[in-house]
Design brief:
mainly alpha, two-stranded parallel ribbon, globular
Amino acid sequence: CQFSFFNNLSAIFPKSPIVANELLAGFIKQRTINLRSFYGHTRTLSDPNDGLYLWDRWVGPNRDLFPQHLLADNSADQMRRFFDAWQTMAGRAILTKNNRLNGFAHIVSSVLPNALFVCMRRDPLHLAQSLYVARQRITRDMRIPYGAVGPEFDSQRVPEDPVADVCHQVLHYDTLAARQQAMVGRERFWIVSYEAFCMNPSAWVTRVADHSHTAILQNRLRDLPALHPSTENRVPDKVLQRMREILNAMDFPSHHHYPN
């Protein structure tokens, strides 16, 4: 599919990623894109990178919070010019991942009017397990959430009970997604089942390409296999049961999923 993306080479040159790719991309071994990652981290210079260091330019460096506005008066213009320059360099539309857009897509949507936002909604029980394990492995403090959170989450927190806390975090993300969809509009903010995407990724790539009027290499699309996200339990049985009980008692917002 004819999309470009930020790569790990860009992360080495965060102040000049476009120049770095123009000069050095030819020395990177081109191969099949690695679809495996550890919480978004990939291995080789040619593999996708979330480009958070670039977003820091426009919304600030505090990645633990959802920005409420752009960093400076000229941030909108800088963002617009950067994405235009990147797409000119790459010769194709850009596809990038930023989990925090779940909380500030409405800000970016007005700056980049052609941007499409695809929000992956994972099964709440599996997401709760993932967030729980991330606290164990990444933050290394069960009281500290992994990922950005908004002020509403602070009012719901129970840090002394990490099981309940991650469940509230799941609800928080679901609520944010519904809110962003209402502000940006269903046509540009899609909420897609992560499990449905994994079953047939080529269909979703086609839908995104059609929306952005991007050509698709059919032979590459045929080679795109179904993905198999882990469905095994990642936490002790007692923790899993508590998660299930807490999530079942929560009032999750009604989403407009794409497609109907």
